[in-house]
């Protein structure tokens, strides 16, 4: 987590046994302290939407 913050990685993901069993992803946005837990499919959809709507 610390290394990701230093490198300013936009999303830091945590995928452990609980996430695997529940098909969820825990993530934290760069610069935020709170972690969000969402379904894996919802997270993938969020990232795909962000990529599609990215301003060049």
Automatic annotation (TrEMBL):
A GO molecular function held by the record: ligase activity
Source taxon at top rank: Bacteria
Residues annotated as domain Anticodon-binding: 2-49
Pfam family, one: HGTP_anticodon
Sorted UniProt keywords: Aminoacyl-tRNA synthetase, ATP-binding, Cytoplasm, Ligase, Nucleotide-binding
Family annotation (InterPro entries): Anticodon-bd, Anticodon-bd_dom_sf
Stretches that traverse the bilayer: none
SUPFAM superfamilies, A to Z: Class II aaRS ABD-related
The protein, known as: His/Gly/Thr/Pro-type tRNA ligase C-terminal domain-containing protein
